[in-house]
Amino acid sequence: MKSITRKQLEKFHKAYHENPMNKVIENAIYNNGIDEVCLNHSIIEENQPIFNIELPKAKAYDQKQSGRCWCYATINMIKYNVAQNMNVKVEDLDLSVAYLTFFDRLEKSNKVYENLITSEKYDFKYLKEEELLSFGEGGQFIYARELIKKYGLMPAVYMKDSISSSHSNKLNLLFQEKIKSDCKKIIEFKKEKASMEKIRQEKEKNVRRKLHFSIKDFR
């Protein structure tokens, strides 16, 4: 590998200072930050915050230190229709994001187990190549839609946020480590050519543990 030489650095330094605008930009960023310096005001002027549809004022959600923006966005989108169907004021309706996140974790862990069980490959290299262990708390609208179709929605009063669900970095790490541990056991069973019934029993036990794991951290 060819390394950077001192001669090259001197050449870069000279080229940088040959353009006086570089120093102006450098000082502007130093004093104001890159976000302010790069802000294009003409774009802001062209995109005024004017909307032709205005929804009733309702509770403003705060995802805090978690990756659940997709759940909040989905709930905000549908809660007005839910309020109309239930004949309640939308400002009185608060739906549980923790409820959706709870089942999202359960479904994601089940997907990892099923991919491992049904694949002809059964090692951590396969899991890594397929990025099956790199899932997190993030998601998209389609995830929330399928969760709601399967599990429905719940008023927030029956499943409120906890410290772990709203500040979820540690919970996410622990959850992934537990799934890795479960996968290790399934891999061992497959190497031993255990029966599919025994492997499925192990998977069911793992999912049940995830259920208990999640309940303790969301409650």
Word description of this protein:
The chain folds into 2 domains: 6-46, no CATH class; 69-218, Cathepsin B, Chain A, CATH 3.90.70. The protein has 11 helices and no strands. Helix 6 (97-118) packs antiparallel against helix 11 (196-218). The protein is flat. With 219 residues, the protein is mainly α. It has helices spanning 6-18, 20-32, 34-38, 41-46, 69-86, 97-118, 124-129, 141-151, 163-166, 169-191, 196-218.
List keywords for this structure.
219 residues; Cathepsin B, Chain A; 2 domains; 11 helices
Question: What does the radius of gyration come to?
Answer: 25 Å
CATH homologous superfamily identity of the largest domain: Cysteine proteinases
Q: Helical region count?
A: 11
Beta content comes to under 5%
Name given to the CATH architecture of the largest domain: Alpha-Beta Complex
Low-confidence stretches: none
Which fold name fills CATH's third level, the topology of the largest domain? Cathepsin B, Chain A
Tally of individual domains: 2
Sheet with the most strands? none
CATH class of the largest domain: Alpha Beta
Helical coverage, percent range: 55-70%
The helix-and-strand class reads mainly alpha
> Which shape, going by the Cα principal axes?
flat
Number of strands: 0
Q: Please state the average pLDDT score.
A: 83
| First-to-last CA distance | 54 Å
What letter string, H or E per element, gives the SSE order? HHHHHHHHHHH
